[in-house]
Amino acid sequence: MSASTIPLTERPAWKALAAHHQTIHGTHLRELFAADPKRGERLTAEAAGIFLDYSKNRITDETVKLLIQLAEESGLKDRAAAMFRGDKINITENRAVLHVALRAPKGSSIIVDGVDVVPQVHDVLDRMSEFANRVRSGEWKGYTGKPIRNVVNIGIGGSDLGPVMAYEALKHYSKRELTFRFVSNVDGTDFHEATRDLDPEETLVIVSSKTFTTQETMTNAHTARTWALHTLKHQAAIARHFVAVSTNAAEVTKFGIDTANMFGFWDWVGGRYSMDSAIGLSTMLAVGPEGFREMLAGFHEMDEHFRTAPLGQNLPVLMALLNIWYTNFFDAATVAVLPYDQYLKRFPAYLQQLTMESNGKSVTLDGQSVSYQTAPIYWGEPGTNGQHSFYQLIHQGTKLIPCDFLAFAKSLNPLGRHHDLLMANVFAQAEALAFGKTAEQVKAEGVASPLIPHKTFEGNRPSNTLLMDKLTPAIVGKLVALYEHSVFVQGVIWNIDSFDQWGVELGKVLAQKIAPELEGEAEPALAHDSSTNNLIRRYRGRK
Ligand code: G6Q
Which of 23, 46, 113, 293 has its Cβ near the most Cβ atoms within 10 Å? Predict the structure, then answer.
């Protein structure tokens, strides 16, 4: 039996960690820091321009050693090699998982089913670049001869969250003359509000859909076509105003988009791993081909770090192992991601899909029910806003919530004291969470006795701080790759398929079934449960 086929909870490192947890879970971070004056410098790692301080975690050197042993016993190195090699590690869909190929440099080679995919990746990137340059320079004209001023990306899930996050994150570097809108929800309000002030003559619509069959996206795409034709009148206008990003050329043609205006990708790119494929066309239009390539280089730098760095200095591995530690041994149910940078406001939403769609699984690769927890819930808001709302629970609630703080040494918009104040807040939060405030300290401040328990902070609440120089396209690539690989490592340890999404597929099928029951003239024969039947009847009666 190879190490990784031993059930997780029977691996020697797992058992050792369970015993170790018993001895350490009562230890306070105050004690750990007092015992080792260099802890804050020692328990750090740095790579690809990201400095990770993980000293404020409830760990000792022994914990790290055992967690690394667990990664080794889980076959991490072999599984990572298999991913980078292009093996079909997404077993339930029988697919390779090669988002790393999307940022492989020209000249490198990765073979899938006998074909080197790297030249294909660069062909698409070159076509995207040429198109982006034409639109950005004004050379690409709309049907009535006007240059493009607005870009509307229509897509959902993996075909939306990455593009939105990247656009917001890189707004500073974007071409401000272009307006970007993103439509994802099948709620008509989304489309209406995104387009109500746009002139179709100056608007380019990108229909982003891997399958080109997703109900929400196709509904919005058809509505967009009607909206455009209302002004542009002629079918021929579609070719100037609509482009597609998809793997499905047949459906793209059926919709009426010329495949000359289609940018492809491949089945080995999962939706939530696709923001650096052609799905990133809106990002490239915003920041230009140069900026996009800088982002890809950032992704690749983190890929190389993950592939080659020893586990104990490997940022994605360390972050993954800390998640395992809290999820599986401290029963922590969530992780808060707290970017202290306004441009990263959509990063938590992006990470929710990446982490929860990937590792929200409860059977192992061989179909057995897991006997342990898998993906924690990810959530978060940019600092300092969260401090004035939910941080209360993180500080004094009954739940243990490990936090990832993301911060930058330089602001892209230096303005008086703003950045120092922002940074003072992030450092202060991590400090307060870790060390708290004892009843003695509160008393010494002269607080009246009845209030002392209310003003006491237990502390011992763990966090990582990721400190970077400044937000650039490259850093966005590095950060995303960091979390992608962290998700992968966790999936390997939990022995689950991080690359399928049957729960999402289910939703797609269920809605297709009910839609005709809402739309038909005649009362349909309903065969759902009594609650669903009743809701459908009430809706039909009132719509
Ligand atoms: C991502 C998921 C899912 C997917 C959307 C959109 O990993 O599979 O979020 O991206 O359902 O799918 P299409 O791109 O095929 O429209």
Answer: 293
